Amino acid sequence: MNRFLILVVLVASIAVATAENSCVDCHKSVSAFKPEEMRFNEIRKEHLERGVSCSLECHEDLLSKLAKSNYIQWSSSKHAISGVTCDRCHGGNPETRDKEKAHTGVLRASDPASSIYYMNIPSTCGVCHEKELAEFTLSEHYKKLENVELAPTCSTCHLPHGFKIPETTNMAEICQNCHNGNIGADPEVPPKAQELLKESFELKSLINKMKAEGKDGENIKKAEQILDTFPVTWHEFNIERLEAEIDAVKSLLGVEEEAKSVPGFELSIIIAAFATVMLLRRFTK
Ligand code: HEC
Ligand code: HEC
Ligand code: HEC
Ligand code: HEC
Ligand code: HEC
Q: Which among 35, 102, 37, 33 is positioned nearest to 70, based on CA atoms?
């Protein structure tokens, strides 16, 4: 399919999915641009009018950073394509064109009763993303969140309103916001997480390559299954588990393992020694 057709299909499907939704209709015209953003847009338009050809290219990055409009960001997200309209997360009444009536029940993010209050976000998203929520509730992050301590919620990593998936290029950066020497969450996490994500992508393309070469053995299928659920598995944020899954995929595919030191052996001796001491204490009581 050529790009134009894809665009037509996209626009058409957004139109179908969000027809008759007053939030979307009205917010399309509510400008969320700040004065400096509007000035910037004016300059860009002037450039375009004068035929300064590089203008869009030069400023595209800046533009995308500045275009903070909730609607604009949302409209190019998978949520827009799938008809997940504003009201699905914010509440309100999408059937009336009256602003006050439409906003009934739409609460500010700072209100603890709001569906988009920091702590309430996992359950708001979890209505549709049950599997991610289930894994997330097992995480250290969730425990901290429940105890009203610093921790990421869904929208910390999937920023509104693009709700994009972290990429190998920005993964470490996201984690480093907290996993750093100053704030104190384990600073070894970010590089490890970035590497794991990168490896999972590389192994996925390796599988595709193997399949294209006509290989489709049982091991390849098993490896593919593990990688298919990997994006969900992430949400427990258990690095050992993720490493074990990547190692399992590698061995299923016959990928050479890097030579590792064996901390497991020393650890098992320590555990055995500890267990012995505990046992002895029990018997001597
Ligand atoms: C008739 C136009 C209109 C409709 C319909 C509308 N909005 Fe709004 N909305 C606005 C405007 C304008 C603002 C900016 C603040 C203000 O003027 O109240 C706003 C603000 C908001 C805010 C920011 C929080 C706040 O209270 O200021 C949210 C969230 C929001 N709207 C969500 C929704 C949702 C969800 C719907 C549909 C159920 C909706 N809006 C329908 C025009 C509209
Ligand atoms: C998938 C869920 C989801 C959808 C769909 C969604 N939002 Fe949001 N929105 C959020 C979350 C979560 C926040 C809170 C972000 C934060 O606190 O960092 C938010 C914040 C906002 C805010 C700031 C509100 C405040 O009180 O600070 C506005 C305005 C807003 N959204 C408007 C919209 C509009 C308009 C749409 C539809 C075009 C929309 N949102 C669609 C989840 C969503
Ligand atoms: C009403 C259902 C619904 C709600 C609520 C919802 N989502 Fe989604 N979400 C979807 C659907 C449908 C998709 C598209 C699935 C697909 O294409 O595979 C999606 C896709 C995503 C993706 C993948 C985007 C991509 O580019 O691949 C992320 C990340 C995501 N949602 C995060 C969130 C977060 C965070 C929240 C809460 C703030 C949320 N969602 C709330 C239905 C929902
Ligand atoms: C600390 C960061 C972080 C938090 C918090 C987080 N996610 Fe994710 N999310 C990720 C990463 C990393 C991926 C996987 C990227 C990959 O493998 O492509 C992901 C992937 C996803 C996907 C796509 C899954 C798929 O099958 O493609 C969805 C949907 C999603 N997250 C929803 C959520 C929801 C809902 C929450 C809250 C309950 C949440 N995320 C919390 C980092 C986070
Ligand atoms: C908003 C802050 C914040 C962000 C962002 C964040 N974390 Fe965390 N994370 C924490 C806190 C707080 C803990 C609790 C444990 C601690 O104090 O070390 C934690 C614990 C963890 C743990 C388990 C224990 C450990 O220290 O090894 C892992 C794994 C983890 N995070 C992975 C990630 C990954 C991967 C990302 C990025 C995708 C991320 N985190 C982003 C705050 C954050």
A: 33
